[in-house]
Amino acid sequence: MGKRILLVGATGLVGQGVQRVLLESDLVEAVSVLARRPPASPDPRVQVLLADGFSTQALATLDLRRHDACLYCAGPLPVGMSEAAYREATVATLQRVLAAYAGANPDGFVAYISGKGADPGSALMPLRVKGEAEQVVARCGLAFTCLRPGIVRPVLGEVSPHRLRRGLYALGDPLLALLGGTGPRVFTTTAAIGHCLLRLVQATGPRPAVIDNADIAAGGG
């Protein structure tokens, strides 16, 4: 039997790539996308689970059972956000989703897409909040891994939902392609993240708690 995956953040740049990798794998039986609103063009192979605002009440109405793993790729850009707003969108939302998933799948696995340099003691607000989010993952009671990618290059046809980012990726892609081969500690791709997650889902032994950017292509080991 293939794996059944709950994917959070499928509309984001990383989430789009992860979904594509999952759907192209014979190792995956089903993908359920947890979303706040219906996607514009849902893939017919994907079950969409709607939870308005990812509130506790909305999540409680969903049947999240029988999912081998929860791949959490969601997270807003911190540009223009206060620390309180970014913490609510990053840490509190993650906490609610993981509580619902863990309650339905006590033997499940969680992978969280964090960020390079995440540290709850960081002087930089986004890295501090990401570090707090990693602490939430570590306390969820499930097997887990936090991935800390650096600069992610879209290579599977993904389109960023953020207009500014779309323009920057279009202009900078040749440079990212060049730097990607020379800076493995900083640069990675959506494909590398997707395949790393797929290997983690399939793993039968202990998984690393953290996988840094340089190890994402190797699945952490």
How would you describe the overall organization of this protein?
- This protein has 221 residues and is of the alpha/beta class.
- The chain is built from seven helices and nine strands; from the N terminus they run βαββαβαβαββαβαβα.
- The strands form two sheets. It has a seven-stranded parallel sheet with strand order 3-2-1-4-5-6-9, with helices on both faces. Strands 7-8 form a two-stranded parallel ribbon.
- β5, α4 and β6 form a beta-alpha-beta unit.
- α1 packs across α6 and α3 packs parallel to α4.
- The longest helix is centred in the middle third of the chain and has 22 residues.
- The protein is globular.
- The mean pLDDT is 88.
Q: Give the overall form.
A: globular
Number of contiguous helices: 7
In whole angstroms, the N-to-C terminal distance is: 25 Å
- DSSP summary, beta strand count: 9
Summarize the entry for a quick read.
It is built from seven helices and nine strands.
Strands, helices and their partners?
Layout: E1 3-8, H1 13-23, E2 28-35, E3 46-50, H2 56-60, E4 69-72, H3 83-104, E5 109-113, H4 125-138, E6 143-148, E7 151-153, H5 163-180, E8 187-189, H6 190-202, E9 210-212, H7 213-216
Parallel strand pairs: 1-2, 1-4, 2-3, 4-5, 5-6, 6-9, 7-8
